[in-house]
Specification:
About 10% of the residues lie in helices and about 40% in strands. By secondary structure, it is mainly beta. The mean pLDDT is about 90. It binds zinc ion (ZN). Zinc ion binds next to strand 7.
Length: about 210
Amino acid sequence: MTWRQQSPINLHATIRADAPKDYLRLSWSAAVDGFRRDSDHGVAVNFGVTPDKYLELDEKRYHLHQFHFHHPSEHLLDAKTFDAEVHFVHQHLDDLSLAVVGIFLTVDMSLKETKETTALAESFLLAKDAATPVPLKPAWWLPEKRDRIFRYEGSLTTEPYTESVSWIVLPEPKAISPELFKAIFGSHPHEARAIQPHDRRYILDLAVKMVLVK
Ligand SMILES: [Zn+2]
């Protein structure tokens, strides 16, 4: 099989445009119970069926399925690597296509722990048995500045590398504390796949007004 649109990529040579109104809506604000699953690819948190958590991309709805981490980042931004990258995987219930939100993470040594980050780090450490839920607000992982997104059509970055993924990558990284970084990345190696060619794809750099719904 010849692959034509693989991920990750170096995000450069992008085309600037304005996203239409309501282009990206995220139902990410309320907490949802996830279950930690560790694998050869690192730490993942699965949600099972979560009909109330979704994203709508250009009016198509995908349900939140799972999120996981890569260390270092898989995507590059103008050839720059970040400390880590989190992928929120959403799936359309009928055609099973995927929409993945990629957020770069940077470790900020000066970042003060808050009650919320300490609880988050603890829940990652406690939830090793995959039976204890990790209550998570997906919206917590969004950086403060989120008025731009990169959009391109790509693939899964692990086997089977299926090319049915609409990628949304935020250029602005989310800063996390060293404690949280250690809680997530301390026990496992995490993989980052090599950069793949753009080929003939358009990489859009969109000015967007992200709509957060509950
Ligand atoms: Zn991933």
